[in-house]
Amino acid sequence: MQQGLFGDESVAQNCIFCKIIAGKAPAHILYRDEQVLSFLDISPVSAGHTLIIPLKHHDNLFTLSGEEMTAVALHAKRLAPIIKRVSKAEGLAIHQLNGRAAGQTVFHYHMHLIPSHHGGPKLIHGRRPAAPSALAEIAADIRQALTKG
Ligand code: 5GP
Ligand code: ZN
C-alpha cells in the first residue's frame, strides 16, 4: 500500500479506487502521474467511458483542493479529444456526482468522460460490465494515442 496518499488507512482499504491506485484491484489504466490516474469504467455507458481520479482519497468535491481539481481538469482536457477520436464519437459528456443524493455510488472523487453518439444513450451509469477483452482493446488504443500526444 502506498503511504502518504491517504488521511485514513481504513479508507484506503475499503475504497475500490484506492485499491486500483495501490495496484490491489485490476483496472484498465490509461494514464498516471503524481496527482491523477485515469482508467476505463468497468460498466461503460459507451466504449471509452473513462474515470479520472486524484491519487489522494477524497470522498467527493467538497474536500478536494483547487490544485487537485486543476490536475483532474487538465488531464480531462488532454484526454477528452483522444477518447472522442478513438471511440469514433460525435460528442463527449462529462459528469461528476457529489454525494448519495446526487447519485454518487463510489465515494472517491472522480470525473466521468463519456463518448456520446447521436441517438445513443444519455446516461451517467452503464447497465452492465463490459467484456474485459473489449476494455483491454480500447484502453490500448487510447494509451497509444496518448503517447503520440
Ligand atoms: P458514480 O456513481 O460514483 O459517479 O460512478 C461510479 C462509477 O464507477 C460507475 O460508473 C461504475 O461503473 C464505476 N465502477 C464501480 N466499481 C468499479 C471498479 O471496480 N472498477 C472500475 N473500473 N469502475 C468501477
Ligand atoms: Zn479512495
TrEMBL record:
Domain HIT intervals: 16-123
UniProt-listed CDD domains: HINT_subgroup
Active site, UniProt feature: 110 (tele-amp-histidine intermediate)
Pfam family for this entry, one: HIT
GO terms for MF: catalytic activity
GO process terms (BP): nucleotide metabolic process
InterPro entries per the UniProt record, alphabetical: HINT (IPR039384), Histidine_triad_HIT (IPR001310), HIT-like (IPR011146), HIT-like_sf (IPR036265)
Renumbered ranges of motif Histidine triad motif: 108-112
The protein's name in its UniProt record: Histidine triad (HIT) protein
Species for this entry: Zhongshania aliphaticivorans
Upper taxonomic lineage: Bacteria, Pseudomonadati, Pseudomonadota, Gammaproteobacteria, Cellvibrionales
